[in-house]
Design a protein that fits this description.
Strand order of the largest sheet: 1-2-3-7-6-5-4
Distance between the termini: 49 Å
Number of domains: 1
CATH architecture: 3-Layer(aba) Sandwich
Radius of gyration: 19 Å
Length: 157
Amino acid sequence: MKFFQQLIIIMCFFLIITGCNTSSSVPNGFYSYEKEKVDESIEQLEFTPNLPDYVPVAAEVLVTDQFEVAGVEVFDMTMFTNENDIFTIQCINGKQVDDLNTTEEISISKNINGFYQEQAYSQKLQWNNNGVSYQITYRPNDGKIPVEKLIQVAASF
């Protein structure tokens, strides 16, 4: 009898702990991704970019790449969906400035502003934080993502 009481107490404990753990929860309409795989790739970089907690697409394939452009280190994470959508996150070691004539300034968080650009074939959100430039690019097969979803992903970094 005592064994069953202890078992019930342990089960209740795990249920409470699991129910209270919201740090890794993904909001409705968003998806998790292979963050461990990406973390391993980031360890090879000379800078440490932040990563989002979740993404707005259900990625079937995730590819990471590290390269340099004009001597500046860049990390690229690209996700592909079954519908042939492409979602890319690019992290650049240093501040980058986009052509402000074709973008709209938006608020990502209380202290961070970004620039949003929508074209017929893609959506792009770009911002700087702690010496790193971030760029999210979404290239849909059909349709688009509401800009609010891109902003929410950016705020989760």
